[in-house]
Specification:
6 helices; 127 residues; 0% strand; single chain
């Protein structure tokens, strides 16, 4: 169970890092797939700083947590993903399901489930 949880958390981290790197190095294309087409330079800066920062920060913490088997490192990623999910729920209520993105909400819920399960699986491990 510990090995599976470590692999899953490391995989989440690697995916987050990949998305973050894509946002930095291929900003226009990746941002357009996220519903942010036709931005100016300030928009690119915001995507690179804020959205890429979200993914790179969450990815780095996830990878470090997986390699160190440290459950206390999982809460920042849980917080980031949880806040993103709350933003989607607000969007669902205000703008409807298309704007909220059911797929993204499902992915965020799945990530939270994995992180909470992992935190529980790692409790009490000799560190």
């Amino acid at each position: 169970m510990v090995v599976v949880s470590r692999v899953l958390v490391a995989l989440i981290g690697a995916i987050f890092l990949s998305i973050g790197a894509s946002l930095i190095f291929n900003t226009a294309e990746v941002a357009a797939t996220m519903g942010l087409p036709n931005m100016d330079a300030a928009g690119y800066g915001t995507v690179r700083a804020d959205i890429a920062g979200f993914f790179i920060g969450g990815g780095l913490i996830s990878v470090v947590a997986a390699f160190r088997k440290t459950p206390s490192l999982l809460w920042p990623v849980q917080l980031l993903v949880g806040i993103a999910l709350l933003g989607r729920i607000f969007t669902l209520l205000v703008d409807g399901p298309v704007a909220a993105g059911w797929e993204s909400m499902g992915i965020e819920v799945a990530i939270l489930v994995v992180l909470f399960w992992t935190k529980r699986a790692w409790q009490g491990l000799h560190l």
